[in-house]
Structure formats: C-alpha cells, structure tokens
C-alpha cells in the first residue's frame, strides 16, 4: 500500500478536533487513504513498505479545501460579453442563458465537469460538491454518471447534487420546457444514483445529495418527496435559498422561503442551503436552531450586485458555514482558494454596517475546510490529523509572494491570498497534482477535448 512521508514541512495546519494550530518543522506520514502521523523526525527505520519520501522543505501544508456549491456545466458559458450581468436585468439574463443551457449535450456536461474539477484541484480543492440541475431532454439522464466518470479520471472526491426543476415557466418558473422533469422522474433518478454510487463508508470518494434546484422552480410535492427519499436513504439535502426569491414564495405560499422549507421538512442537520444573502436575522436564527447549514458563495456578489451576505451574523448565531465557488455564470472561475480571500475582504468592506464583528481570517479557512465537511455530513475530511483522510495541499512559501507573511500561515490565504496553483495536491492519499502537472494525465489532451465539446454549443 503506497504512502508518503513529507519531510521537513515548514508548517502543517493541524486540527485534532480542538481547532487549527500551526506545527513547525515537522513531517507528515500517510498510508493508503489516511494520515498516519504528524510530528518531528518521522524517519522510521525501516519506513513502512511502499512509502515514498518527498522533500517538503519550505512547504506550508493545509487541509484540502471542500467546495459546497457549484454548477460545473456553466464552465461552458463564461467570459461572454453578450451575457454580461452589468448590461442586462436578471430577467433578461435568465431569458438569454437558459436556452443556451438547454442545448448542452451529454459530452458537454462531462467535459465541463473535467474543466471545473481540474481548476479546483490546481488550487487546493480536494472535495467537490456540484449542484447539477440542468437536464435537457435530448441529453438524457446519465449526466451525473458522466460527472462521476470525470471525478474518477482526475482523482477528485465528489459529492453529486442531483438537482432538477419541475415547475413550468407558464406557472411562474424561469425554466424552459426543454429542461423540465416531473417529480416522479426526478425522484426516480435520485434513487437510481444513490443505489449506483452513494458510499457512506469512511474515506468515501462518491456520494449523492438530493438537491431540487430551488423552491421557485419546483412544485411543492418535489420538495416533499425529496425529503422523504433523503431521510429514507440517509443522504444530504440541498437547494438554493435566500437569493431574492422570498417575496415570490411569500406571494405563492403565504410565507418566506425559510419558513416554507422548514414546514416541508427541508431543514435540519442533514440539510444545507446555498447563498442566503437576503435572509433576516430571525430567519438565520431559525436555521441555526434547526441545524441547517449555509454554503456562502462570495464571488457572485461582484457580478450580481446583491447584498453582501451577513456572515458575521451567521457566525454569531452558530450556523454551520461552508464556502462555494458557485457556477461560472455568476463566477467565471472554479477557484475556491480565491473565494476564501474574496469572502474575507467582502466582510471587511461592509464591517461598519454590521451588528456583529467580522470573523477572524482563520475562520474563513475553516469555512472552506472543516465547515464544508460538516455541510456534507463528513467527519473524515476537512482537517489534518492522524486517522483523517490524506486530503491536503502544499505551497512552497520560499517565494517573493510570501515575504513578510510566513509568520502566520493560518491567516495567509484569507488576508494575502494565494495567486498561483499549489505545488502539490493530494486526495485520499494519492498525489493528483504536483509540479504543474496532473499525475498520469495529459492536460493538453484534456484541454483539446473540452474545447472540441465547447465548439458544439450554439450561442
């Protein structure tokens, strides 16, 4: 069984369950999928069979990042001037972009998934959750199967959010008919995916989340049946909440979205929502009381121009918080590392308007690691400690970029930012990215295949 001994790490961010701390000038030993030990002079004689020694001098070693909200398919619809948020109203933007989504093929979903996950791995992300709610009828039902295929190719730990939309545009949704499913279709495919892929065991590389797209685009029964299936199969629940739709839900159902979801049972320790920027403090307190978590996606704030999410209040009320890239339609990259810096800086920008203090820089790193693990229901990832999954990334701090910063690795990412790919990314004990290359893969070939698939899309 292969293992690695990372020798002479300048700093390792260790968390044995009592919060992160920095251990200086130590070694880190892995065996198979797990961390075996972190300490000084681990040059065991002899080393466990199959152990590969890696010089880690100058390296800062961090727990792998955990992405908790994305839409991989949108990587094929980014950096396009004709879809610029600043030149269109939200309704105009939706009317232009959804027909494009509806023309994507099965191959597009596969290659856009490879594209998103590759970028995440380069920037230290080791676990990816994707909210795949786009199912054009012509593309078939095996789109998430292809996402698992892409994750296997890259070695990514992948949680698939099986999304869906059931309410027709004629009844108030924003979804073209070509992307609609019935509730029965949606639930049946969620069950198929759980049966085919979901692994609840330690160090699982594949899990499934029941994730209807959002209340405004689904019938009530879709959410009711989602709760029943998820609780029966013991999987997580996810949806979009609090991104401007609450007045619509109130007009339809007589209550805002948090109360609506709570009434349906779509809340609790097995549930997390994306965004939540428009929620009141009372609604945030209700979420905290139920154990419902939030995936904060900071970078869409720049494009959409909406309110800056009140993370200080969420932290003060005890909500579980994770970070997400969000889809490339509202964030044109898949760099969760950058989101840590963006999230912190946005809160600093609005500090004078808040009732509660901005959380410490370290807290933003935790949102992207142990916080994300909590949202996904994982206790085996998100921290570096013996017995935890060997999910980590390393940066060589011996660069001009880090002069004057090396005294505080805990705050480095949030305050300074890391503007380049990692020197190493390891997932489940396997090095998947090192020295500017994907292990065992030809990036040029991946690029050419993705570009060829993109060329089939009609804009």
TrEMBL record:
Entry superkingdom: Bacteria
Keyword presence, Transferase: no
A molecular-function term among this protein's GO annotations: hydrolase activity, acting on carbon-nitrogen (but not peptide) bonds
Keyword Hydrolase: yes
Pfam families: Amidohydro_1
Ranges where the Amidohydrolase-related domain occurs: 60-432
Keyword annotations of the record: Hydrolase
Stored Gene3D superfamilies: Metal-dependent hydrolases, Urease, subunit C, domain 1
Family: Belongs to the metallo-dependent hydrolases superfamily. ATZ/TRZ family.
Family matches, as PANTHER family: AMIDOHYDROLASE-RELATED DOMAIN-CONTAINING PROTEIN, AMINOHYDROLASE SSNA-RELATED
Protein's UniProt name: Hydroxyatrazine ethylaminohydrolase
């Amino acid at each position: 069984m292969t293992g690695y001994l990372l020798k002479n790490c300048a700093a390792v961010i260790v968390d044995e369950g009592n919060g992160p701390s920095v251990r200086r000038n130590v070694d880190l030993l892995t065996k198979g999928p797990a961390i075996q030990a972190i300490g000084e002079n681990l040059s065991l004689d002899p080393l466990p069979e199959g152990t590969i020694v890696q010089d880690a001098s100058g390296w800062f070693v961090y727990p792998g990042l955990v992405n908790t909200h994305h839409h991989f398919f949108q990587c094929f619809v980014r950096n396009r001037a004709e879809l610029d948020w600043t030149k269109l109203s939200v309704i105009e933007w939706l009317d232009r972009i959804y027909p494009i989504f509806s023309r994507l093929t099965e191959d597009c979903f596969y290659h856009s998934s490879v594209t998103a996950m590759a970028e995440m791995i380069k920037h230290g992300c080791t676990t990816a959750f994707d909210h795949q709610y786009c199912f054009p009828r012509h593309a078939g039902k095996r789109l998430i199967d292809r996402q698992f295929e892409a994750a296997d190719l890259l070695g990514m730990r992948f949680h698939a959010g099986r999304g869906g939309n059931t309410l027709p545009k004629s009844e108030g949704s924003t979804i073209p008919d070509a992307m609609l499913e019935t509730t029965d279709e949606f639930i049946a495919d969620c069950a198929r995916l759980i049966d085919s892929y979901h692994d609840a065991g330690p160090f699982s590389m594949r899990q499934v989340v029941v994730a209807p797209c959002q209340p405004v685009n689904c019938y009530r029964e879709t959410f009711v049946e989602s709760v029943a299936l998820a609780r029966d199969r013991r999987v997580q629940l996810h949806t979009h909440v609090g991104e401007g739709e609450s007045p619509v839900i109130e007009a339809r159902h007589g209550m805002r979205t948090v109360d609506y979801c709570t009434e349906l049972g779509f809340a609790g320790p097995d549930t997390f929502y994306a965004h939540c920027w428009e929620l009141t403090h009372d609604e945030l307190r209700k979420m905290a009381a139920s154990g419902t978590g939030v995936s904060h996606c900071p970078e869409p704030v720049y494009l959409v121009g909406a309110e800056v999410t009140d993370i200080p209040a969420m932290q003060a009320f005890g909500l579980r918080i994770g970070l997400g890239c969000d889809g490339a339609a509202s964030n044109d990259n898949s760099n969760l590392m950058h989101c840590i810096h963006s999230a912190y800086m946005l809160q600093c920008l609005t500090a004078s308007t808040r009732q509660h203090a901005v959380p410490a820089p370290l807290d933003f790193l935790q949102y992207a690691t142990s916080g994300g693990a909590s949202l996904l229901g994982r206790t085996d990832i998100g921290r570096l400690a013996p017995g935890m999954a060997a999910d980590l990334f390393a940066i060589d701090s011996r660069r001009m970029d880090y002069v004057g910063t090396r005294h505080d690795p805990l705050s480095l990412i949030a305050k300074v930012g890391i503007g380049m790919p990692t020197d190493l990314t390891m997932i489940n004990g396997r090095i998947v990215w090192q020295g500017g290359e994907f292990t065992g893969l030809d990036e040029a070939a991946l690029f050419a295949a993705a570009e060829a698939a993109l060329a089939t899309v009609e804009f």
